[in-house]
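Hi support team,

I submitted a single chain yesterday and got back a structure, but I'm not sure I'm reading the token output correctly. Could someone confirm the output below corresponds to the sequence I sent? I've pasted both exactly as they appear in my results page.

Thanks,
R.
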Amino acid sequence: MLTARIAIVGGGLSGLYGAALLEERGIDDYVLFEGRDAFGGRISSVPSFAGANCGASDELPRSNRFDLGGTWFWPEWQPELAGLVRDLGLETFAQHEAGDTLVDASPHRAPARVRGFGSSPASMRLAGGMSALVGALRSRVSTSRIHLGQRVRRIQINGDDVTLEAEDSRGYGTSCRATHVLLAVPPRLAVTTIEFSPALQETLSREWHDTATWMARHAKYVAVYDQPFWRERGLSGEARSALGPLTEIHDASAPGGDAALFGFFGVPPETRARFSEDELRRHCRVQLARLFGPKAAAPTWDLVKDWARDPYTATAADLHALSDHPAAPSPRASEGLWLDRITGIASEWSPRFPGYLAGAVDAASRGVAAVAPALAAPTGPLEPDKPKSDQ
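Hi R., thanks for writing in. Yes, this is the structure output for that exact sequence:
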């Protein structure tokens, strides 16, 4: 059995940032479990020829990666995340918005062309996609503390400690004993997929279950081209459509990289589930051709990422939930056996930016700040369990 003072559940932005903050405070007695085989959670940046079975993308030009999850941040509005980006030395650029916007409101009329407008404050992106942020944080976390491909299934109070039980895709288990747990997975996902023993406080469990997971209902489509031909026509690449399947479309190109468009599906998850990915891509290409002309019908490659089909993001309850950014629930128990045992640090627990990338940074900062004082005393690691023959 593994032992640590802190167990982090989830290797997305909040989990990795939480681990990095612990390291900064000189607290290296922690473990991090991530159920996926890669870090990032709801951050996913794919290379431009991912459809060609390229495999690992670490050696590809950073300009040729496209975000399927979190994409933007706003430095003026989200200074802590902006400061982290600067501290990590990551390159940023503004979302391309120059040119007109297309509005497609009726199947009986051609899309209307209207004057575009820039975001205020500016929407910023990262060279290499948001996965560049994940990779930079990963480099600050001890490899020996990380357990990829291990999804936590049970968290149990065991005397003065908490025991976590995780398993890989083949059902092989790993156990860990800790004094405190930082939950870096969304609240609803936590109470749906993790067994807590004893059960969480009823009001807390209900509050977490009623908190919608940002991105869980969403799907994104990316189409990559040799040239940003829409710009030649004075178009920004932005479009709004009442016809779908994409309701909101943006230019996904990065400086020095391939041209691309991406859009958010307006079709609900239960409807999308009736179509294959090939069918969804075909419908998207037809729509882009209607908006931007025949060149849009022939991308060099295209891809759909449906987060509603991702078992590490969505639950059955998310398929019928609201898709707005949720109000932040309580991150910890206020009484009972779970008091001072577990703290939520995923983005949804941020009172300032729930569901946003900045929310993951905010919630992780708050969570680590809350538990760090109790870890200040150098008590050393937990003693490992003795073999039964020695007990």
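A quick pointer for reading it: The two ends are 16 Å apart (CA to CA). Let us know if anything else looks off.

Best,
Support desk
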